[in-house]
């Protein structure tokens, strides 16, 4: 029943294949067997072919080319490029280093966002689409030991179409490269299909075997399973049954296997998935639907990852008799469930299921659901009746405080390293100024040829991944850790990302976890440089100023600190940072081409089209998240005060969403300000609303360099905001040393000395707005000042280019400052912080002090 293509002539039984060599079919196009060659001639011919293949595939120095002139390679060319890589050096830890010049990471001219929201999904933007990042982000280490694969992928195929090469592309491009792909050739007889198989089999991880028994998908998969269990002892820990025309996202295997490692009582790991082709759908059900998979239908994706332990322990196989006409996957999953093996889902669309024409499957494999879905459902429920009321439902266990932390990865990835790798660690991907700044940094590095890895340590779905579609335009390597790992696995996963990718520099921004992990990470990886990027001190004194305070506490472990303003650099030095030479300043910027001052005619037209107001109506715009830092609840009170002071018609429009939206709506109604304050929600292109505006308002508690204010200033709008944080620097009042350099008439707006209360601040902001509303000349002059302050050097490509220079200056302190008592030691701070959080009354001197009489 089994037959290995090219198997040894002196042993009719299956032998363990040499996985370091390609397996090439010995069948001719007519389906007959070729004559056997003498052994010495066979060996000589094989050696010649391998040498010739090596020479042909050896990469030459690439000619200079730009992203615009680069031709998008065909899928077969990508495969050939993938197989041609040869490592030149060996990195610490054993992985090969492939110079970026030999494996360049070049972004295509046109990129599309990778939306996970079904309403925004771009179904043509598949993992192999030319509108995605390069397919060579992850490279197989040419010296990797592939004899003990982590995953065995089983594909049964009959006369495969050329799209099998696309399937292969998404496998060969995985971030987990240590796998074996067992392709079961199920009676293929078409010459073109045999050529496709031979092309794919050139990869050293591919084994093509023959199914010489009964034809069919279930039979072919069983042939593959038996092969894996006979050839490997122990077998690969994880298994996948992959159709010959489906696709994976490039981190799918890595994330699914790590999810199962983090949930050791799970034996089945699925994902959300995308159906595309003849029909399009984003599927939100899955393994996590638990008993609905028995009672309602099969929601487990075809290519879910399952454990060898489950297959061996249950004895389950694909039913070749009862389900030869379809439903074999459903039956297989229910068999595992019946024996107590189940799991959960990684709630991210990582698998693309190709929907073929209605008659394709019946033409290829036989009749499909011949009696309809109802009959199949009854058949499943009858055969697996023991699952009724006893389904082994699973859900992630709760995180346990002080659970053991292991630093060793559960398996080796077999990834090669390159000399252009960088890691960004951020809390999440909100649609906020700091997060858009991180997006621009990622884009900048990807455009410079870096393979970028992104790790997010918090998850508040869906808001916290609003920017993920746009980050995925520049890198496949985005990891939302809480979506597939328990907290105690975060440390070793971060170490795993660094070590498996060969990362030497990591940029950290706004991640409390990373600051608190730094001593341990440095101990584990003393050769890595950790650099933090700071936006501003906390507006509510969280953590005694927040991330800048963390930076000061952690300075012995940081190779460099970068701030977005001189104000913040000076704050660090005033509050305990020891070395100004280890602090750089790189300001955030904007997409300047989108923000050009509107003419009076354009402003009038925008007011009419977007807001349906008259040209004489003064439009005041607020752009920012509806959260406490931005003080959105103050805006209706400002409108109320302004209404008392002026006779002009005005309207305040608020762009953004957040936690205070409902409270804001209630306050607008309570103050009867519905006519004067409008909440528009998030807008992808705020420039259209700036064009309709006369004044920009942002009553924040504090800001670093505000992206929204930069945009408004570029549009020539006078700004009304607080004299707090870096805002005086941004509006031109202060220089890099905190000295006043411009008077009020030379600024880009009006700075308000607010008191952070709800009574006086609305009055102060209303007074500032009144001065601009009643004095059109002042409004125009401050608007021109604002434009002048940002018209040169404010584009993010220019401002953030300084990151490259700053990271070149990054350098770890000798022995990380050990023995230098000037440097804070973070453990003392974190220990006292936990004590205050958990036992405040037991350690607080004031709570025990005698009451005053």
Written description of the protein model:
It is a single chain. This protein has 853 residues and is of the alpha/beta class. It has 3 domains: 2-29 and 146-387, Spore Coat Polysaccharide Biosynthesis Protein SpsA, Chain A; 420-589, 3-Layer(aba) Sandwich (Rossmann fold); 595-794, Glycogen Phosphorylase B (Rossmann fold), CATH 3.40.50. It is 34% helix and 15% strand. It has 29 helices and 26 strands. Helix 3 (163-172) links the parallel strand 4 (151-157) and strand 5 (179-185).
Write the layout of secondary structure elements.
Blueprint: E1 2-4, H1 39-57, H2 75-84, E2 89-90, E3 96-98, E4 151-157, H3 163-172, E5 179-185, H4 191-200, E6 206-211, H5 217-231, E7 238-241, E8 247-248, H6 252-262, E9 268-277, E10 281-283, H7 292-295, E11 305-307, H8 308-314, H9 328-338, E12 343-355, H10 360-365, H11 373-383, E13 417-418, E14 421-426, H12 433-447, E15 451-456, H13 468-471, E16 477-480, H14 490-501, E17 505-508, H15 512-524, E18 529-534, H16 547-553, E19 560-563, H17 566-574, E20 583-585, H18 600-611, E21 618-623, H19 634-645, E22 650-655, H20 661-670, E23 677-681, H21 687-691, E24 695-698, H22 707-714, E25 719-722, H23 727-730, E26 749-752, H24 760-774, H25 776-790, H26 796-799, H27 802-809, H28 826-843, H29 845-848
Parallel strand pairs: 3-13, 4-5, 4-7, 5-6, 9-12, 14-15, 14-17, 15-16, 17-18, 18-19, 19-20, 21-22, 21-24, 22-23, 24-25, 25-26
Antiparallel strand pairs: 1-6, 2-3, 7-11, 8-12, 9-10, 9-11
